[in-house]
């Protein structure tokens, strides 16, 4: 018997010529080239190019090939992808061990979860499911998750722009996540893992990891014990909220504003369109980037922003999504999505910035150039207006602060109303 | 002992029940039966993969012990998977399908001969996604149906694996991890019933060691 050649296998990218490690040869189907970002089909011995790309995108906290031990088993990071939905974006890493198969690491704003695909499936409906005798309740409304940048190996066909319908169910910190793509459903169990544990297990560079949102020091106070403190708590909360708002306006600083537009092509990415040049006149300023598409339907546009500093050449990136869908089902007409997108880029150092955008338009449910009923091919681009301005205020942070400040007094009031 | 009619090397036969063997030296597919020995042509060389299973690996499912006697690799538009042929001590066969880092262990199931979904499948009509089959009180639903081509083989097998061999496979899954595979090759249809599992659950012995991945304690 001939022994097969021992791994690790490598493939050569047909687009850029780079040599890429194939860490799960025989299982991997798609590979995003780490050098040029091109998408390759590696399921057959002759590697085929699926989509050309000329820029390795996106930075990830974990590098491909990193090894670490989690839950007493060793794992290699073999794939990474960015995904987003209406509430934000997150990163997913595919872990592999030839003896134990695949697992996931999901990172959302510095919080990490370890995912295992389920072989025995939960039972239930859209509101709650039962799995291994325990009840899990739905967390959010169902969301559509869109795949952004992909790099490394995956055991299924993956591509930028893939859409999955996701619903998650929770019980005591553990989550069961249901994803549906083209009628095929997969279930994943997600358990939280401490960021420090991930950092230690994989030897990660802490500076590349997102930090978890700060926890409120107000937590832990016994409920409704010191009744007389309530007016004082409300007053203090109000004071803190106002002072913070004034401080935010003060640090936001002078405003500079540019506006431009981009014609997003269907099915491909238009790269590096310059919107204008923005001046950051304070040591640190927030920059708000807004995008707006005109009347369109059953389309979405992925927007990848880059603010490149003229002084240092350093790029700061962000993601935007304008989308709108409509249709008719048993409940009547429905519409979903927002033709506007509004994101805030965190503190940029003083300097002059060229603002670039990459844009790709997509047709739902299928990629391609839309064709109208009368046979005319629609315009091959979708125009999006983009506005970038300095001096933006981090409203979401402020609202979060207000919620945190009033959560305890609010709970106490609710408690009292219920008692009386 | 049988020698390869093409290159003369001795064929290592792991199963007395299977009549097709792939010569590990020259990739000839050899048909050996009471009627004689025949060279049927060359089989594709299996591409390198990371599978920890190899010919001779021993596995256990409940009380039954199996050893691996052959492998076919099937490719479809969305990837490829391995089907390892297992044989129990009494010569009865089972398949271990290996895909996405998971394993599906199945034995032949004869109880479905008059199920309408199976009858339709046998006459060339594929089931719809979600269509159900009831087997021993277990409800199984069609989760994927694919047409595959043979990408190569090794060891001993019950059918010929020459390039161009085609298979239609319909998978049915239950909530409990039980699964049913309907397979059609030309005119012949078979049903295989079993369950999804992890490699550790099969208590494997004689696994292939993979460079850079020491065999974990749990599998030693």
From TrEMBL, chain A:
TM regions (residue ranges): 230-252, 395-414
Keyword terms, alphabetized: Membrane, Transmembrane, Transmembrane helix
InterPro entries the UniProt entry points to: DUF4178
Domain DUF4178: 64-189
Protein name as catalogued: DUF4178 domain-containing protein
Originating species: Novosphingobium aureum
Upper classification of the organism: Bacteria, Pseudomonadati, Pseudomonadota, Alphaproteobacteria, Sphingomonadales
Automatic annotation (TrEMBL), chain B:
Official protein name in the record: DUF4178 domain-containing protein
Pfam entry (one): DUF4178
Domain DUF4178: 54-193
């Amino acid at each position: 018997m001939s022994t097969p050649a021992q791994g690790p296998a490598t493939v050569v990218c047909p687009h850029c010529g780079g040599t890429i490690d194939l860490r799960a040869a025989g299982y991997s189907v798609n590979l995003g080239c780490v050098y040029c970002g091109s998408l390759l089909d590696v399921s057959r011995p002759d590697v085929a190019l699926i989509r050309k790309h000329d820029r390795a995108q996106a930075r990830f906290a974990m590098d491909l090939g990193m090894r670490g031990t989690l839950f007493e088993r060793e794992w290699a990071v073999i794939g990474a992808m960015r995904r987003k939905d209406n509430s934000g974006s997150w990163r997913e890493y595919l872990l592999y061990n030839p003896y134990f198969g695949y697992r996931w690491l999901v990172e959302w704003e510095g919080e990490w979860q370890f995912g295992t695909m389920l072989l025995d499936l939960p039972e239930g409906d859209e509101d709650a499911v039962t799995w291994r005798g325990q009840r899990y309740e739905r967390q959010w409304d169902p969301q559509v998750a869109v795949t952004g940048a992909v790099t490394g190996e995956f055991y299924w066909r993956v591509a930028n722009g893939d859409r999955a319908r996701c619903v998650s169910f929770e019980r005591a910190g553990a989550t069961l996540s249901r994803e549906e793509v083209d009628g095929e459903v997969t279930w994943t169990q997600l358990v939280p893992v401490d960021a420090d544990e991930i950092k230690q297990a994989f030897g990660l560079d802490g500076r590349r990891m997102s930090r978890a949102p700060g926890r409120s020091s107000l937590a832990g106070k016994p409920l409704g014990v010191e009744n007389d403190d309530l007016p004082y708590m409300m007053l203090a909360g109000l004071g803190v909220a106002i002072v913070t708002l004034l401080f935010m306006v003060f640090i936001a600083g002078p405003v500079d504003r540019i506006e431009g537009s981009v014609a997003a092509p269907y099915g491909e990415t238009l790269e590096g369109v310059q919107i204008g040049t923005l001046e950051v006149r304070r040591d640190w300023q927030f920059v708000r980037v807004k995008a707006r598409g005109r009347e369109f339907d059953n389309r979405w546009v992925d927007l990848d922003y880059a603010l490149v500093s003229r002084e240092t050449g350093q790029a700061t990136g962000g993601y935007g999504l304008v989308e709108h869908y409509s249709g008719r089902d048993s409940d009547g007409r429905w519409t979903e999505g927002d033709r506007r997108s509004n994101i805030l880029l965190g503190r940029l150092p003083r300097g002059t910035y060229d603002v670039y955008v990459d844009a790709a338009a997509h047709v739902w449910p299928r990629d391609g150039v839309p064709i109208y009923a009368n046979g005319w091919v629609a315009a091959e681009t979708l125009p999006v207006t983009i506005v970038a301005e300095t001096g933006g205020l981090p409203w979401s942070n402020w609202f979060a602060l207000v919620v945190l400040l009033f959560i305890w007094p609010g709970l106490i009031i609710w408690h009292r109303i219920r008692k009386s | 002992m049988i020698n390869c009619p093409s290159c003369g090397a001795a064929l290592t036969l792991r199963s007395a029940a299977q009549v097709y063997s792939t010569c590990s030296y020259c990739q000839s597919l050899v048909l050996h039966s009471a009627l004689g020995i025949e060279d049927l042509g060359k089989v594709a060389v299996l591409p390198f993969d990371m599978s920890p299973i190899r010919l001779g690996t021993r596995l256990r499912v409940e009380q039954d012990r199996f050893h691996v006697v052959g492998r076919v690799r099937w490719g479809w538009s969305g990837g490829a998977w391995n089907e390892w042929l297992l044989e129990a001590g009494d010569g009865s066969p089972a398949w271990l399908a290996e895909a996405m880092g998971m394993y599906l262990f199945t034995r032949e199931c004869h109880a479905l001969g008059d199920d309408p979904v199976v009858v339709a499948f046998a006459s060339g009509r594929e089931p719809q996604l979600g269509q159900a089959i009831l087997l021993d009180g277990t409800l199984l639903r069609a989760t994927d149906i694919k047409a595959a081509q043979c990408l190569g083989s090794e060891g001993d097998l019950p059918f010929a694996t020459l390039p161009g061999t085609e298979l239609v496979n319909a998978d049915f899954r239950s909530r409990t991890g039980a699964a049913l595979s309907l397979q059609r090759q030309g005119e012949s249809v078979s049903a295989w019933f079993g369950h999804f599992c992890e490699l550790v659950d099969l208590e494997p012995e004689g696994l292939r060691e993979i460079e850079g991945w020491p065999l974990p304690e749990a599998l030693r």
